[in-house]
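Fold it.
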Amino acid sequence: MTALLFGGLAAAAAPQESTEIMPLSQVRAGMQGYAYTIFAGDQIEKFDLEVLGVLPNFLGPKQSMILVQLKGPKVEHTGVVAGMSGSPVYLEGKLAGALSQKLGIFTKEAIAGVTPIEDVLRPPIESAAAQASPQQFSLPNDALARNTLPSGSSLEPIETPLVFSGFQPAALQQFAPQLQSYGFVAAQGGTAEARPEDAHLAPGDMAGMVLVQGDASINAACTVTAVQGDRVFLCGHPFMNLGEVQMPMARSRVVTTLSSDLVSTKIVNVGGPIGTITGDHLTAVTGKLGATPAMIPLDLTFVMGSTEKKLHFELVNHPKLTPLLVALTTFNGISQNSLYGEGTTLRLTGEIRLQGHVPVQVENTFAPGDSLMPDSLPIALVVQSMFGRLFNNNYEIPSVEHITLRVESQPGRKSYTIDSAWLEKGEAAPGDNLKVRVLLQPYRGPARIEETTVHVPDQIARGTTLRVLVSDADWMNRASRGFNFPGMSGAAGPEGLDQLITLMNRERRNDRLYVGLFVPAPTLVWDDKELPNVPLSQINMIDGRPAPGTVQVLRESLSSESTIALGGPVSGLISLNLQIR
């Protein structure tokens, strides 16, 4: 038998258990056992269970599951509780596994799945083959509905409570689909003062992952299965199956357990930091007691008139999580501050500092719309998109040193639609400066005319037809760089993170009107470089043929461009032809 070195049990816990484990090969249907969890406070409580059978190869090759029925007044009342995952299960006084699965919803009996303890303690490399196998719970919900047993007839991982402290319900509701797709149950909770005994974990205690901390916090919580020296095993199933990770680990303290026919869950306060979550794998989340890893500082400043409010947060650094966490935190911060109103416009500025790279500049303007969508959501989605592009690049994992965002509320609701545009004259000569007039329709205001000038190239051939594009920022980005702009996909793209940052910093801003003059000469787009008027002899060597790096050929070149700052979002597109006489 393999020996376990358990951390000291809390004084209120059951008597010290045996250090032996029970191999899966010895588990039989009908065995009586028990498990430990916390229903309220720091009291580790014992509840009974009976083995119904073993499901061989349930999660994958050599990844079996023990099926049990929970017994006792509390568990028969609550059923399997979100946050109970990881609860240590004992058979014949030996540690047999970790509670990890539940049988559907609205069930009349508390039937659960137990991950065998051998799989919980197995090094991640030994279970890599099993993790590579398709898993039932990794499929989208609609795929499960089409291809598996009806709801209530299949085992699913016990939900992990994602505890939000300092967040409004509106923020959780807005991002609920994304949270649910990760298998989380959003729950509001608090932040408890750190205690000297926080790191003294025992099987049945609660701990979890810190995703956000500071003026508001987001933490995941589940139950500790076992402690070996400074190593902690919890959850009995993956948090998000992220593999090797570096996240702060914190103690969790249960306030009470909420019983529900849909999802019973533990109401949790987050305690002090106790170490680092080091692994997130198929059969367990693992951590190490001691020092905590560095997080990304985020400073949010909200300005309205002479009033300024500052908030500080720290976020976990992970490509799958950071974009969502920045969006959630920004959305919540704006929603809690009365910045937006019918007669206001918001201006977002800031920068994202990356180690070894120039900062990414953030600048955008937002005006509230007439839809029922929360006015702060567009800002959150823009921020999420920026971080998604940075973290989902194919070149390197960015090391974010600091995020600074400033949201300023400006009086007046400013937004503009391009209504029409016309040229001062329908023909021009090489070298002319051509006046362009644009009719703009402000939101609920009188139409206004703006005028600007573009320069006709000196060397343009007579008889050539040029194109004058009057547009917003997105359309001008598309025209000048093909389809390589936010939200679109295309052949051309940057080859490294430096090039991606350069492109992001060069993208046009949404509060400006753009007028561009395009000539019928090819532009070669290579990584972050735009090479207009490339000779046809060179284009023919590249166009339509494989080439090193990412190359795109545009049939036009942007010869001249002018902008007009309007102070609010601009939308629209008009294309005009200009004949060179």
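Residues 377-391 form the longest helix (15 residues).
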